[in-house]
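assembly run, all chains below
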Amino acid sequence: MKKFWIIKPVYAHCDLPCGVYDPAQAKIEATSVFAIMTKYADLSDTDKTRAIIIKEQRAELVKHHLGVLWTDYFKPEHVEKYPNLHELFWQATKQAGACKKSTDPAEGQKLLDHIDEIAKIFWATKKPA
Amino acid sequence: MKKFWIIKPVYAHCDLPCGVYDPAQAKIEATSVFAIMTKYADLSDTDKTRAIIIKEQRAELVKHHLGVLWTDYFKPEHVEKYPNLHELFWQATKQAGACKKSTDPAEGQKLLDHIDEIAKIFWATKKPA
Amino acid sequence: MKKFWIIKPVYAHCDLPCGVYDPAQAKIEATSVFAIMTKYADLSDTDKTRAIIIKEQRAELVKHHLGVLWTDYFKPEHVEKYPNLHELFWQATKQAGACKKSTDPAEGQKLLDHIDEIAKIFWATKKPA
Amino acid sequence: MKKFWIIKPVYAHCDLPCGVYDPAQAKIEATSVFAIMTKYADLSDTDKTRAIIIKEQRAELVKHHLGVLWTDYFKPEHVEKYPNLHELFWQATKQAGACKKSTDPAEGQKLLDHIDEIAKIFWATKKPA
Amino acid sequence: MKKFWIIKPVYAHCDLPCGVYDPAQAKIEATSVFAIMTKYADLSDTDKTRAIIIKEQRAELVKHHLGVLWTDYFKPEHVEKYPNLHELFWQATKQAGACKKSTDPAEGQKLLDHIDEIAKIFWATKKPA
Amino acid sequence: MKKFWIIKPVYAHCDLPCGVYDPAQAKIEATSVFAIMTKYADLSDTDKTRAIIIKEQRAELVKHHLGVLWTDYFKPEHVEKYPNLHELFWQATKQAGACKKSTDPAEGQKLLDHIDEIAKIFWATKKPA
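ok done. output:
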């Protein structure tokens, strides 16, 4: 799980007024969701309540960041090149919802895997031709 | 400006219930603030208004993410080792405020520089001894 | 423009803990976006700024409500039956973004049309077989 | 419980910059509060916590949407014609607070009833003379 | 304008789970709205946009804090004793809306006056009999 | 615990566009955190969950209001005169975090004490020389 991953600040030119996108935002929140799950079983009752509150918020942030990538960053030419892109985002966002409902780290890992897959496509589209 | 920077998902063990911290969150929002500034002069009136709204929100997110690092991640032993840590966070957070008030990219660059300095200390504290 | 449309409170049974979905939420916010656009040209400078602030928020709420329908309400069997569902939501959410950037009522109308199309599918899936 | 209710997009002309009001917004959130209550008893511990978190948020949204109707939509001539309007909104908003504190569907039903009463007055004021 | 006013932390016992109410919260935000108005005319274009954004948020916070007082703190016996209480809150909240639409300090002053009137009643109800 | 404390609306002139700061905002939210803690032990299970949700939000608001004071209000000359100012804010904000994790009123009292100390410095800096 200790894999490194490279993040490059992005300067897309298509969008006003900012054009900065980065799958790291979804990844960091999802990592937090996952970390909460791995600790959940050993928490006190009060901390369990807090864990669920915070997991709920972080999973919602994952959804938000995924939504930004899906509809603000990705363009029709990307969808043409990656025809499963919509399905991928749908699964990933649904999985963020599944993580709200679960405390099983396996669900959190699935979310991280979905985001990694999206990140791969994201960075492929940033590569110079 | 096209520098790469390495981001490692963090699994700190000190905090309940999550322990995931990453200066990339502040950096991405600050990069967005900076990007808005570089585009501001050429925008239409309506877009200028939007740019200010969004810059305001992003700069506030920078403040939030800095605050999380400063008071949730950093511990007394870090402050002891890096005695200027408080001042550094104060300057960086003040600079995020300055970026709300300005549309000069130089102000955005200063914010990025402050965050880079914090990130350097952050990663130094994550290094194995 | 004075068309009526029927809204039925929904009691879906698939989801915990609420299961209440309704495209009216996206529609009302989109109607507000559209109304702001129709009034924009005649506003004072100060009111123009306010109009853009509020339009920005309402369009974001449209995005949010669409996201809830797309990933919380719709299930794989719906996607199978309506293969363009993902594309439809993508276009609608992108259009909400386009409405942030524009003050042209025609853009707002397109958003309303997209939502109407989604609402039609939504209500079709609620019909008794 | 399967009653239909008609919702007409509203184009009030009094207010800048939007003028779109609709009691459906409060009703949908209140329906969600009610639905959570009807399911609460059968939920697991973790889901009970989530149910309370979400009920809290939805009830707060009910309050917000009621507040918008009360102070943005309704005008002195309405209050003159419906002298119990203030009391009605007070009771409804207090009931939204009561729903935060309770998991009894009867409390949720009371909230729905209050909103229905307000909606009746709302639509009466929209009728052509 | 340099009047002092006394604030006593309140420990009401009626409500779960907090019972801390204080009209100072609405007053401070309203004072901020008023201060923005007094400075507005002399601001640069960019700062004018920011001023409107921030005034919008502060006026919304006034509405929120007034709503909490009105429906969480005040009880039927208070309404009986102060029969104009509903009207007073309605006017004050409407005035917060008016302050969103205006940059005239006179409108901000009216808001402050309404809140002062509410505060007087609030503190009267806290007095020992 | 029934101590009075004086609040003066502040009209600082340094900052655009508002310049209204007041430690009462942090104090009121912290008082609410403390009040929740004193009631926690006697609450029902459902109310305990709500108490933790609300305590979490209020403690976050304390952090927010402290951040505003620290980086928007206080200036280099204040830090020079009160060299422990940064440490004080760090401790106070960390204590707000500690209050999220605890239901012990002693933790809430420590938070109130930290805020009182900050308030003392704040008002000292407002005094005419």
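Chain B has a mean pLDDT of 87.

The first strand of chain B starts at residue 5 and ends at 7.

not gonna interpret more than that til we talk
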